[in-house]
Structure to design on (338 residues):
């Protein structure tokens, strides 16, 4: 028997492309985030409210990841921002290579903020760095307050948590205090916003933070 | 959920170290999988065996080394395992911790059976 020592990261190829993406994004002075959640938590709705709120003050582009269809890119394009759809054809997450291709189709010089909407999934996207500045995780009140504990990797790797659909709190058994406690136990540095895309509650606070962050040049 | 593509990545790394003709001699591939890597060991093992079946790598075994989530408290420097992913220092109760291990996803080494020496 003989042993060959390897000691290499399994996702090194992805991480290498992510590093290139990050360098490209930063060289244009762009702020970026990768928005993740389980399906139906409201990622695209949050982006619509965000674009509505910020499109006059920031130059924004969106990269949309979906398993099939370009419905989300169409929804986002209605707000007059460049939207590139990536269809993963069954793939459960975005990879750095797919984002690299999308970046080549955008005029990065003319932007302040790049938003990457990942495939709805709280497991796999946690592993794949895309080159974004930070991850924003969305959890809706209909999903239960124990979700951060069930998907610790994602909540540990995210910098921002948006608790969405707070208008539904009277109808669901979700304890907001428990969501916050569980999330902060996994990641005490998480910045938390509470929003409703229907009543627009919390949207100005989230957008205010995002605008300030996007104007801060690296 | 994406263990199949992870298994494929592992095989691609192995291929860089073992010439095609020697693939059948690979006995085991050792990988390190952290509890925070998002990878389910059973599912990875299943994916690996499904991909290598019928190929020269077919008799290779995937050995998975489980890596617990270990943290260091930034307040009191105590090191502890974040069992159940509770990142709260058991010594002083502080929540600011640095992850030392647990997000690992690496190919460690491979074990080869030497080719039998050809008799003249």
């Amino acid at each position: 028997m003989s042993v060959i020592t390897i000691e290499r990261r399994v996702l090194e190829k992805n991480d290498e492309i992510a590093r290139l993406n990050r360098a490209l994004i930063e060289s244009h002075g762009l702020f970026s985030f990768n928005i993740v959640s389980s399906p139906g938590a409201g990622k695209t709705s949050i982006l619509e409210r965000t674009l509505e709120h910020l499109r006059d003050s920031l130059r924004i582009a969106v990269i949309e990841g979906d398993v099939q269809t370009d419905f989300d890119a169409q929804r986002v394009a209605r707000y007059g921002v460049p939207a590139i759809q990536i269809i993963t054809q069954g793939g459960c997450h975005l990879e750095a290579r797919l984002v690299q291709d999308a970046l080549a189709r955008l005029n990065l010089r003319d932007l302040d903020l790049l938003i990457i909407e990942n495939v709805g999934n709280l497991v796999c996207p946690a592993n794949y760095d895309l080159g974004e500045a930070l991850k924003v995780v969305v959890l809706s009140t209909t999903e239960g307050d124990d979700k951060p504990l069930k998907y610790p990797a994602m909540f540990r790797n995210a910098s921002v948590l948006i608790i969405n659909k707070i208008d539904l709190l009277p109808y669901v058994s979700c304890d907001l205090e428990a969501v916050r406690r569980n999330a902060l136990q996994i990641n005490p540095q998480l910045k938390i916003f509470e929003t409703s895309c229907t009543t627009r509650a919390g949207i100005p606070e989230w957008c205010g933070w995002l605008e300030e962050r996007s104007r801060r040049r690296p | 959920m994406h263990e199949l593509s992870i298994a494929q990545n592992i095989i691609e790394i192995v291929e860089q170290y073992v010439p095609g003709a020697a693939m059948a001699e690979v006995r085991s591939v050792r990988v390190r999988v952290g509890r925070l890597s998002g990878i389910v060991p059973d599912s990875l093992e299943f994916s690996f065996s499904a991909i290598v079946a019928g190929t020269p790598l077919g008799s290779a075994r995937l050995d998975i080394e489980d890596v617990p989530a270990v943290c260091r408290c930034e307040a009191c420097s105590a090191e502890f395992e974040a069992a159940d992913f509770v990142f709260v220092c058991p010594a002083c109760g502080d929540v600011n911790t640095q992850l030392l291990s647990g997000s690992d996803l690496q190919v460690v080494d491979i074990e080869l059976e030497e080719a039998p020496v050809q008799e003249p």
Summary: Strands of chain B lie at 26-34, 61-67, 70-73, 79-81, 97-101, 105-112. The two ends of chain B are 51 Å apart (CA to CA). Helices of chain B lie at 3-15, 41-52.
